[in-house]
Design goal:
By secondary structure, this protein is α+β, with helices and mostly antiparallel strands. About 25% of the residues lie in helices and about 30% in strands. Strand 3 and strand 4 (about 40-50) form a beta hairpin. The longest helix is centred in the middle third of the chain and has 13 residues, at about 80-95.
Length: about 170
Amino acid sequence: NKKQGSYHCHRGQLAGQEFSSKAEAQNALHGGEKIPDGTIKGVARVVDGDTIHIGKIKIRLWAIDAPETKQECHRDGQPWKCGVAATEHLSMFIGSKSVTCEDRGTDRYKRMIGKCMVGTLDLGAEMITTGMALPYWEYGGDYYQQAFREARGQEVGMFAGTFVPPWEWRKERK
């Protein structure tokens, strides 16, 4: 019952069970560990620099925007596959460790938006601090302002050269 802040399943393998959020119900159905308060925990599969899957649940990392897989940046005048690099960095950072994501809503593609952690380490902060993503200013990115300043000041990742912000790169290709 959404009005009462709970979800009660009437059909299927979750029939008769009650959940505190839609994410918790999806987590129970599709893999990962059921945790009260709508968080999801499990082994993640990295899709790109700002999207992971835990079980069958697609999760867009909250408040960051990484370059698209096909996106290129430039370093020393040479093209650099920054989208691929962002995906590889997130994969290496997560490795086989468990990821915990706090539900922050749903995006227009019906992916869960999650503030995700490996232990106490914030995936969004890691991606921005290393210059592999930008704060998504329009969607809570101010939270990562300090990490952004540090990355830009140290000229790491995308800041080591030139790049088009991912949201502009996508817009140019519509």
